[in-house]
Amino acid sequence: MIPVEKIATVIQARMSSTRLPYKVMLSLAGKPLLQRLYERVNASVLKGSVIIATSTDSSDDPVENFCKSEGIRCYRGSLNDLLQRHLGAAETIGAEFVIKIPSDVPLIDTGVIGRVVTEFFRDGAGYDYLSNLHPATYPDGNDVEIMKIDALRKADREATKDFEREHTTPYLWENPHLFKIGNVTWETGYDYSMSHRWTIDYEEDYLFIKTVYDELWSPDYHFSMIDILNLLDRKPSIAAINSKFAGVNWYRHHLNELHTISSEQTKIL
Fold it and tell me: What is the pLDDT of residues 25-70, one digit of tens each?
């Protein structure tokens, strides 16, 4: 049995995005992006307790105010040390397992969250850290990572590089000799990680995601990854909105430091 009561799902969120400021409050189907993301994550029966983790910087006061208005748990920690922020958020509720969801994935499929969590707790698996990112195969924007809090504490004690702390989990997946690491691949056998971009960093990404919401959102149904793929098959002009950024991610800035990431897993602009 999966110990749902011991799981904390942490959604990191801030207002001061470098490339697209205030993106978490941009409107999707009439509500802030952060609310739409929360709704999709909260629909997972395996999410445990959901916490939005923002910073103590005054620029992030709107995030805390939003959480208060919607009755959502909120934790405030370091602006740049996301490793500390995730650990602090999980410890406030005594969690033993932590699911990490970034704030830039408002199209995340609830079923993907369930698949990763179910594999983590599979009898005999014994993972310290599991994700669907190493290597990634799902359309970019379905990022799910889950780890034991003791592994996160060890990373917090020992990670010293700026990117290890800013991106929370590199110390775990870059040190497979220290942790039991696993990966979940897309069951279709396809790899859309470098061709389908459903995450948000640029204005074009927002226009793409907003169009998907305008086409598919319903108050009674959380549209799925398959619904999106079917939409893009019918209307390929939607996929073209942000296709020039497909494959772009933060790895490109640290290829000379990352030992488990190759140049084929990122796109240089």
Answer: 999 999 999 999 999 999 999 999 999 999 999 999 999 999 999 9
Q: What are the helix (H) ranges across the chain?
A: 33-42, 61-70, 82-91, 110-120, 149-158, 162-166, 170-173, 203-216, 225-234, 236-239
Go through 151-179 and write b for each residue having 16 or more CB atoms within 10 A of its CB, e for each that does not: bbebbbeebeeebbbebbbbbbbbbeeeb
Spatial separation of the C-alpha atoms in residues 155 and 157, rounded to whole Å: 5
Tell me the two tokens of residue 250.
Answer: 């933060």
Reported pTM = 0.97
If we measure between CA atoms, which residue out of 108, 39, 103 comes closest to residue 70? Answer: 39
Specify the amino acid at residue 64. E
Per the CB < 8 A criterion, the answer to whether 120 and 30 are in contact is: no
What sections of 1-72 are H helices per DSSP?
Answer: 33-42, 61-70
